[in-house]
Specification:
Distance between the termini: 91 Å
Order of helices and strands: HHHH
Helix content: over 70%
Low-confidence stretches: none
Mean pLDDT: 85
Radius of gyration: 28 Å
Number of helices: 4
Largest sheet: none
Number of strands: 0
C-alpha cells in the first residue's frame, strides 16, 4: 500500500508541475502578444534618414528617365532591379522594399510606354 501512495503522490507532483509550466507558457505568450501589439501600434519616426531612404529610389528613377540617354536606360533598369532585389532579399517584404518595387514598376512603365 505504501508503494501505491508513493505513485499517487508522484503523479500529483508531476501534474502540479505540468500545470505550473502551462501557466508560465501562457503568461509568456500573453506577454509576447502584448509586446507585439505595443510595437506595432507605434508610429515610425520620420527623421532625415528615413525621408532620404524613401526619396532615393524616386530621385534615381526620375534621373534614369530624364538624364540618361535612351540607349542606356535598359542597363540602368537592370541595375535598379538588382538593387531592389538585394533589398528585398536582405530585409524581406517591408514597406521600404514595396516602395522600391513600385518605383521600379513606374520607371519601367515610363521607359517603355
Amino acid at each position: 500500500e505504501g508503494e501505491r501512495e508513493r505513485k499517487e503522490l508522484w503523479r500529483k507532483l508531476r501534474w502540479q508541475q505540468s500545470q505550473q509550466l502551462q501557466q508560465q507558457q501562457l503568461q509568456q505568450q500573453q506577454q509576447q502578444k502584448q509586446q507585439l501589439y505595443e510595437h506595432s501600434s507605434t508610429t515610425p519616426q520620420w527623421n532625415g534618414t528615413v525621408i532620404g531612404m524613401y526619396a532615393l529610389p524616386t530621385i534615381l528613377g526620375f534621373l534614369i528617365l530624364t538624364v540618361v540617354p535612351e540607349a542606356y536606360v535598359n542597363y540602368f533598369l537592370v541595375g535598379y532591379t538588382l538593387w531592389a532585389g538585394g533589398i528585398v532579399f536582405r530585409w524581406g517584404q517591408t514597406n521600404y522594399s514595396q516602395h522600391i518595387l513600385l518605383c521600379l514598376l513606374y520607371v519601367t512603365l515610363a521607359a517603355y510606354l
